[in-house]
Specification:
The complex is a heterodimer of chains A (221) and B (254).
Chain A (H helix, E strand, L loop, with lengths): L1 H33 L3 H32 L3 H35 L9 H22 L4 H29 L4 H33 L13
Helix pairs in contact in A: 1-2, 1-3, 1-4, 2-3, 3-6, 4-5, 4-6, 5-6
Chain B lengths: L5 E12 L2 E12 L3 E5 L6 H7 L10 E9 L2 E2 L7 H7 E4 L10 H11 L5 H14 L3 H4 L12 H13 L5 E5 L7 H14 L4 E5 L3 H7 L2 E6 L2 E7 H6 L4 H7 L5
Parallel strand pairs in B: 3-8, 3-9, 6-7, 7-8
Antiparallel strand pairs in B: 1-2, 1-4, 4-5, 9-10
Helix pairs in contact in B: 3-4, 3-6, 4-6, 6-7
The chains are: A mainly alpha (221), B alpha/beta (254).
Chain lengths: 221, 254
């Protein structure tokens, strides 16, 4: 069974590798917007295929392990959440690409306003992604619950960004195309935070064997 | 988990071989018309426990028991128990198919004849009915007078099941019934067990954990004579609560 343990370890490493590529992509995409660095944005878009390839590789490995090793109990829970986590990570990568695409468009026009809330959102969101993966590494800790709680902050900031940009658009319709794009960026970050929340929920499933998705959790138990 | 659906209720039950305590203070309910699997490493006491349910271990002179095994609410270790009748009501099928060295027909008719049924037409009916229920009738209807030992391994095992069914048991105990069979015969027996549970309660000891996962409703995990964990098979294989169970079913034992 030592071979199986080795395979599980390798699978986990692949997820973490994908996770670190995703974290970098998210960070750089927001940077490309804030620093108005279009070269950086193009680089992220160009590199997305690496994430996609790794996602497929992880899925195939999970299917292989289910077929050949007939995993049970925690092993079974780990492999099934690995398949779901990789999908979440891949979607986060796509959203980072979307941020980069909006950055490219926004960087071509004069800056509408200083970016304040977007970097704050990005910071929380990146932290959630990092901690959700950290929770997967360290397993049974309180960390996944903390990640889930932070999702609310991101949701609130999204509303705040939207309301602020709405004022710009009402006052001056010429700002609409830029304001809309910034709203999109906020929405993308908010979606990334949702995916990080999914990962945290799956880590809880791995550790405790209970699904807390679509339930109201009252902090840690 | 003891409820009124339990056909067997095992209470604080221990089995000794001389001074050796092979089964230690076990509690276990067996639900009627369900398949309960008992798993655990060699020497954990699972076969000993199984054999105690129709008092097969009485045959080992050094063995003695403590505690209770209630079958339909009655303690089978009570001094007034009719052991022959108990073994009719609680049949057993073993690891290695063991038909009698007689014809297919005689193998199945043996029990009913002992019970005093003599009428040919009645015996014919019992034999056919038991062979149909054991999913063997179609294969042997034309060779009822051939030796039971001339059948294939899987057929012999189903013949043993038919022999047991002819006694109209309420429970059949299976002690690794497929470990000597190829995968196709194994699948046949597993399908058969799932059919039979509608009318007969099944308790199966198996080394094949996938088999327990495939066919059973409840799984009991034993280790060193103790009942470590008992629960719904889904729970045992997806989210066992005990660390030892987890280690055993994921193959990381010891």
């Amino acid at each position: 069974m030592a071979i199986f343990d080795e395979e599980l370890r390798a699978l986990k490493e692949k997820i973490l590798k994908l996770g670190s590529l995703v974290e970098t992509a998210i960070h750089m995409s927001v940077q490309s917007l804030v620093d108005r660095n279009s070269d950086l944005a193009r680089e992220i878009i160009k590199k997305d295929h690496q994430l996609n390839a790794l996602d497929v590789e992880i899925d195939e490995e999970c299917i292989r392990l289910i077929a050949l090793r007939q995993p049970k109990a925690r092993d079974l829970r780990f492999i099934t959440i690995a398949m779901k986590i990789t999908t979440d990570l891949e979607r986060m990568g796509d959203l980072a690409v979307n941020v980069a695409e909006r950055a490219l468009e926004l960087n071509d026009e004069p800056q509408l306003k200083p970016y304040i809330d977007i970097p704050r959102m990005a910071e929380i969101t990146e932290g959630m992604v990092r901690d959700s993966l950290d929770a997967l590494v360290r397993e049974c800790t309180n960390l996944p619950y903390e990640v889930i709680k932070r999702d609310n902050e991101v949701d609130q900031l999204t509303v705040q960004v939207f309301n602020e940009l709405l004022l710009y658009m009402i006052q001056d319709p010429a700002t609409i195309s830029r304001a809309m794009r910034i709203t999109y960026v906020a929405k993308y970050l908010e979606r990334i935070a949702d995916h990080a929340t999914n990962i945290a929920e799956m880590v809880i499933y791995l550790c405790q064997g209970k699904m807390i998705r679509h339930t109201e959790i009252q902090g840690n138990e | 988990m003891v409820n009124d659906k339990s056909i067997f209720t095992i209470n604080d039950f221990s089995i000794y071989y001389g001074n050796f305590k092979a089964v230690n203070n076990i509690k276990l309910p067996i639900e009627a018309n369900k398949i309960t699997a008992i798993i655990g490493p060699s020497g954990c006491g699972k076969t000993t426990l199984l054999r105690s349910l129709n008092r097969m271990n009485d045959l080992i002179t050094t063995s003695r028991v403590e505690g209770q095994v209630l079958f339909q609410g009655v303690d089978i270790y009570h001094k007034d128990t009719d052991v022959i009748e108990l073994r009719r009501r609680v049949g057993m099928v073993f690891q290695k198919p063991n038909p009698f060295p007689s014809s297919v027909y005689e193998n199945v008719a043996y029990g009913p004849k002992l019970k005093g049924i003599k009428k040919k037409s009645q015996l014919d009916e019992i034999v056919e009915n038991a062979l149909v229920r054991a999913d063997l009738w179609k294969e042997v209807r034309d060779k009822l007078n051939e030796s039971g030992l001339s059948l294939s391994g899987g057929q012999m095992q189903r013949l043993c099941i038919a022999r047991s069914l002819a006694q109209e048991p309420e429970v059949i105990l299976f002690d690794e019934p497929t470990s000597a069979l190829d995968p196709i015969s194994t699948a046949n027996i597993e399908n058969l067990l799932q059919q039979l549970q509608k009318t007969v309660t099944i308790i199966i000891v198996t080394h094949n954990m996938q088999q327990a996962a495939r066919i059973s409703e409840y799984t009991a995990f034993m280790y060193l004579g103790e009942m470590i964990e008992f629960g719904e098979t889904d729970t045992i294989f997806v989210n066992p609560h005990n660390k030892l169970t987890e280690e055993y079913i994921t193959g990381r034992f010891g």
